[in-house]
Amino acid sequence: MSTLTGTELRDEIERTLRSHGIDAVGVTTVDPFDEVRRSLEDRRARGFHAGMSFTFSNPRRSTEPSRLLRNAASMVVGALSYVEERPARPSSTSARIARYAWRDHYADLRAALDAGAGVLRTAGHRAMVIADQNGLVDRAAAHRAGIGWWGRNANLLIPGAGSWFVLGSIVTDAALPPASEPVADGCRTCRRCIPACPTEAIVDDGTIDARRCLAWLVQDTGMFPRAHRVALGDRLYGCDDCQDVCPPGRSTVGSAVSLGPTGGPPDAWVDVLDLLDAPDETLLDRHGRWYIPRREPRYLRRNALVVLGNVGDPRNQRVVDMLRRFMSHDDRLLRAHAVWACARLGLVDLVASAADDPDAAVRAEVAMAPTVPPSPSSLVPAGSTR
């Protein structure tokens, strides 16, 4: 057993975490997050969870960190920056990826937290690393540990740095003294994130209606909601809009520095034509670390077809050929979204070819399609949030 005091052990853990790239560290108790549990239960009762599981599946479990480890006494919380400047769009059919998904930042975060847990184990304590899992509301832990405040967009905001961070914790039976108090609300009168949301998903201060949130809708199963397809614009996975306009985060993005150790070019853009052309195995190999419902690449293709309908050029033969191919795809979900994309681009003849499709959802898309091509000004330019 280590002879270090609780304060000395805490400081040694922080030094270790920071030497492994962690940008902010806090320590807190394992007391239940009762207010957060009530919020999760309220959002679920109001339908705002849109059927997602994650921490909504068992709010009590995910807000009681003492359940994670026998005799748990403390939590060490770490935040790892993933901020980078977005590179230029490679092609007109490139789709945007949310910044947190450009690299496997959670692998870097877990490696750093594992190193911190190693300090605790060497000192004779038990320690468990938890990050990007359903067993703990990471933002609640980070808030109480004094790392940041609850933003109006429901993200945790770190003073002077914004929300461009992945969060994780070490739960331990060591009694570590907290190092700081919770951070006061820094949003004050700022409401920039609310009108910036392309689907008006931020319905209340700190409350998100996932039924309208693009970051969730691209991960959900079934048909992409028709009401939000145009708003999806060129986004394939995730949405950064409420973070892009947040004043603390905007200054951080301007620094154009990623603090994570993972090198190589970022996966900031994905060409939707290449994605639609790739076999399942290739898509899972390239993008398998993303949350893909049921590990079925059909949902990536569904998103890609919506993006293609928003950014594709109907004069581009490869675009037309790809849509024609998906109009006869054996997956009815993809045929339905191909019909919508064709209608969006004014490819009326292709839409009409699906009028006798055996699937009702596909025929419904045909029935709702305009009978004349749209004017060029009605199409959403790449990068638009209209």
Quick recap:
By secondary structure, this protein is α+β, with helices and mostly antiparallel strands. About 35% of the residues lie in helices and about 10% in strands. It has helices spanning about 5-20, 35-45, 60, 105-120, 140-145, 195, 215, 230, 240-245, 245-255, 270-275, 280-285, 300-310, 315-325, 330-345, 350, 360-370, and strands at about 25-30, 75-80, 95, 125-130, 150, 155, 165-170, 200-205, 205-210, 235, 270.
Q: Strands, helices and their partners?
A:
Layout: H1 6-19, E1 24-29, H2 34-45, H3 59-62, E2 74-81, E3 94-97, H4 105-122, E4 127-131, H5 138-144, E5 149-150, E6 156-157, E7 165-172, H6 193-196, E8 202-204, E9 207-208, H7 214-217, H8 229-232, E10 235-237, H9 241-244, H10 247-253, E11 269-271, H11 272-277, H12 280-287, H13 298-311, H14 317-327, H15 332-344, H16 348-352, H17 360-368
Parallel strand pairs: 3-10
Antiparallel strand pairs: 1-2, 2-7, 3-11, 4-7, 5-6, 8-9
Would you kindly provide a written description of the structure presented here, covering whatever features stand out?
A hairpin with a 2-residue loop joins strand 8 and strand 9 (207-208). The radius of gyration is 23 Å and the shape is elongated. Helix 14 (317-327) runs antiparallel to helix 15. 37% of the residues lie in helices and 12% in strands. The protein has helices at residues 6-19, 34-45, 59-62, 105-122, 138-144, 193-196, 214-217, 229-232, 241-244, 247-253, 272-277, 280-287, 298-311, 317-327, 332-344, 348-352, 360-368, and strands spanning 24-29, 74-81, 94-97, 127-131, 149-150, 156-157, 165-172, 202-204, 207-208, 235-237, 269-271. Strands 1-2-7-4 form a 4-stranded antiparallel beta sheet, sandwiched between helices. Strands 10-3-11 form a 3-stranded mixed beta sheet. A two-stranded antiparallel ribbon has the order 5-6. The longest helix has 18 residues, at 105-122. It has 17 helices and 11 strands. It is α+β, with helices and mostly antiparallel strands and 386 residues long.
